[in-house]
Design goal:
By secondary structure, the protein is α/β, with parallel strands linked by helices. Helices cover about 25% and strands about 20% of the residues. It has six helices and ten strands; from the N terminus they run ααβαβββααββαββββ. The strands form three sheets. The protein has a six-stranded mixed β-sheet with strand order 2-3-1-7-8-5, sandwiched between helices. A two-stranded antiparallel sheet has the order 4-6. β2 and β3 form a beta hairpin.
């Protein structure tokens, strides 16, 4: 009982309190730090993208990437766009806009977007045997297929880029989708950019997709990190997955 109370209090404090910065530009590398932002999106029934630059120094094991600083704020009846703008109000390098379909775009100034603009002829989301194709049950499993496209791998090779983040499909899901579980059908995408493919996937798995660009330093390669995150309900509240 006490464990459940502690977890619920922790989530409430994290949602309403100001996230503490590790430095002038970035917050601690923790999935839970995204909770306030994802709660705003989830309450409004919309998704977002977060495109930014960093150092990639925190990529050790399963650590979460650095990302532009923001504060948790009270909504006070504000629209989702106004709320997210308030979150990033203390970070002048970040611009927050909203597309006609409601998708919120959070973009850090001077972030190279060339990787996101790579055009892919065809992205197949097929898993399993051709005679028994299976749907995909997570955004990061679908991301594997995007990063496997020949045009993407050619661009990385030509520009000395190494990808980080989710690059494995994992166990194949059952052929019949469980009730009320989001999934992506095996239908392929054609003639889309990487960012358009990310938008397509996040529509099936609402939440946020993240793109982090880390520039070269000396002999170090340029890194890019892509991933999907969403809220997951548990017995003690919401967590970020």
């Amino acid at each position: 009982m006490l464990r459940h109370v502690f977890a619920a209090v922790f989530i409430a404090v994290l949602s309403l309190g100001k996230i503490q910065a590790q430095g002038p530009a970035y917050y601690a590398s923790t999935q839970a730090s995204l909770l306030p932002l994802l709660q705003v999106l989830d309450n409004a029934g919309i998704s977002a993208s977060l495109e930014f630059s960093g150092s990639c120094n925190s990529f050790v094991g399963t650590e979460f990437p650095e990302f532009p600083r923001f504060n948790a704020v009270a909504t006070n009846g504000a629209t989702p766009l106004e709320t997210v703008r308030q979150m990033f109000a203390e970070n002048p390098t970040v611009r927050v806009t909203q597309d006609a379909d409601g998708t919120i775009r959070i973009v850090q100034r001077d972030t190279p977007l060339d990787f996101l603009n790579v055009k892919v002829t065809r992205i197949s989301f097929e898993t399993g045997r051709p005679s028994a194709l299976r749907p995909i049950y997570s955004g990061n499993a679908a991301l594997f297929h995007v990063l496997s496209a020949s045009e993407v791998n050619r661009f990385m090779e030509d520009h000395n880029i190494q990808k980080l983040g989710f690059t494995a499909i994992g166990p194949l899901p059952p052929s019949t989708p469980p009730s009320n579980t989001p999934y992506l059908s095996p239908r392929p995408l054609e003639n889309v950019t990487v960012s358009e493919a990310m938008d397509y996937i996040v529509k099936a798995f609402p939440g946020i997709w993240i793109y982090q660009n880390c520039p070269k330093r000396g002999d170090k390669k340029r890194y890019v990190y892509l991933a999907f995150y969403h809220l997951q309900k548990t017995g003690v509240g919401m967590i970020v997955q």
